[in-house]
Structures are given as structure tokens and as C-alpha cells.
Design a protein that fits this description.
The complex is a heterodimer of chains A (110) and B (122).
Chain A (H helix, E strand, L loop, with lengths): L8 E4 L5 E6 L9 E5 L6 E4 L13 E6 L2 E6 L8 E9 L6 E4 L3 E5 L1
Parallel strand pairs in A: 1-9
Antiparallel strand pairs in A: 2-6, 3-4, 3-7, 5-6, 7-8, 7-9
Chain B lengths: L2 E5 L3 E2 L5 E8 L8 E7 L6 E7 L4 E3 L7 E6 L4 E6 L8 E9 L7 E5 L3 E5 L2
Classes of the chains: A mainly beta (110), B mainly beta (122).
Chain lengths: 110, 122
């Protein structure tokens, strides 16, 4: 089955740029989606189709995807961005197609 | 505005069947989209359980497939999850979600329920 690898944690100072990676075999050929989850809340979609933002998501959130790595970039990080972030793809390469999530990355704002 | 609401028992005994329902408001399930279930064990990440199309076609996580059944009731505008032979490892917050995607193989969850906690314990 397809595996998505994320760093367990990323730390960044307020006002700086955070980059959260999501690694997978030839992930650049897939559509990658990103979710933000704050404690006690349901996940919220922040990026879909690699780099599109749903309405209501600040322009500070952006995404890219190439080769074996997809990246979620958060510019001008704010305290309110502290959360867990998950990448997700649809894996159609195996005998059992379906949704795959990365293990999640905890973003800490210093 | 589309809203999803999970419901079902918060406590299930080991070896029994977990049953949850997701009520959809603001959109008719029979109009389209896939509808999915995702769970999150305490302190852990998200795990996809499975998805169903309004026509009834399903996709399941291979690791759970032998124990999972997802069904849809368009007359009640809801879909359901059954997970059999549960153990403590099935203790989790269970979310339902709508899956969007412009093309096959690009699904993402754009609307989520608030989640419901299910504990497996005797």
C-alpha cells in the first residue's frame, strides 16, 4: 500500500515561514490535499489539488508538489496556526484503491 | 450550507458491532459525491475507514475491509458505518465526511462532521 511520510514535528517563530513536507513514491503524479486539525476539533481542509485554497483559508497557506515530496507552506506564521497538519492522497496504484493519510505533523509556534 | 452529524453509541463491548450513522443536511446524498468515514484513536493520526457513493458502490481500507460495512439510505439522507468484532484498538473518534473530487482518484474531504467518540470496553 502507498505510504505518506511526514515529520512528526515542526517548530517556527511567529512571523516566519513554516514548511511541512509529505513524502511518497512519485507523489508528484498524485493530487495532494492538506488538513489542519486543532485540539478537540475536526480536521479542516486547507489545501486541495496540491495548491488550491478553499474559500476562507488565508493566502498565507500554499502548497506545492513535485517528484517525491509535497510541501505545505505557511507564511507569516501566527499563534493560531499551531495545530496538527495531515497530507492525503487517493491511491489508485494498488489492488485496493482508497484514501491514504500521512502520519501528521505537529506545528509548534515558538 | 452542508452539515454532517454523527450519531451512535459511545460505548461498545468487545466482540460486538459498532454502528454509527451520519445525517447529512443542506445537500441531498442522491445528488452525488462520495461519503466517507475516518477515525482517530486517542493521541494518534487519521485513519480512513471507507467511502460510499450515493449509488451504493464502496471502497474500504484493506486493513479493515473484513469487518466494515458502509451503507447509504437516500430516503433518510444519511449513511452508516458498521464495524464488527471490535476490540480496544477500535476506540477512537469517528468522523464522517463528504468527499469531493473533479476526477476519479482525486478525492478530498471538504466537509466534516464534528466527530463522535466511541470507546470499546466491557
Amino acid at each position: 500500500s502507498y505510504v505518506l511520510t511526514q515529520p512528526p514535528s515542526v517548530s517556527v517563530a511567529p512571523g516566519k515561514t513554516a514548511r511541512i513536507t509529505c513524502g511518497g513514491n512519485n507523489i508528484g503524479s498524485k493530487s495532494v490535499h492538506w488538513y489542519q486539525q486543532k485540539p478537540g476539533q475536526a480536521p479542516v481542509l486547507v489545501i486541495y489539488y496540491d495548491s488550491d485554497r478553499p474559500s476562507g483559508i488565508p493566502e498565507r497557506f500554499s502548497g506545492s508538489n513535485s517528484g517525491n515530496t509535497a510541501t505545505l507552506t505557511i507564511s507569516r506564521v501566527e499563534a493560531g496556526d499551531e495545530a496538527d497538519y495531515y497530507c492525503q492522497v487517493w491511491d489508485s496504484s494498488s489492488d485496493h484503491p482508497g484514501v491514504v493519510f500521512g502520519g501528521g505533523t505537529k506545528l509548534t509556534v515558538l | 450550507q452542508v452539515q454532517l452529524q454523527e450519531s451512535g453509541p459511545g460505548l461498545v463491548k468487545p466482540s460486538e458491532t459498532l454502528s454509527l450513522t451520519c445525517a447529512v443536511s443542506g445537500y441531498s446524498i442522491s445528488s452525488g459525491y462520495y461519503w466517507g468515514w475516518i477515525r482517530q484513536p486517542p493521541g494518534k493520526g487519521l485513519e480512513w475507514i471507507g467511502s460510499i457513493y450515493h449509488s451504493g458502490s464502496t471502497y474500504y481500507n484493506p486493513s479493515l475491509k473484513s469487518r466494515v460495512t458502509i451503507s447509504v439510505d437516500t430516503s433518510k439522507n444519511q449513511f452508516s458505518l458498521k464495524l464488527s468484532s471490535v476490540t480496544a484498538a477500535d476506540t477512537a473518534v469517528y468522523y464522517c465526511a463528504r468527499e469531493s473530487g473533479a476526477a476519479a482518484g482525486t478525492n478530498y474531504m471538504d466537509v466534516w462532521g464534528k466527530g463522535t467518540t466511541v470507546t470499546v470496553s466491557s
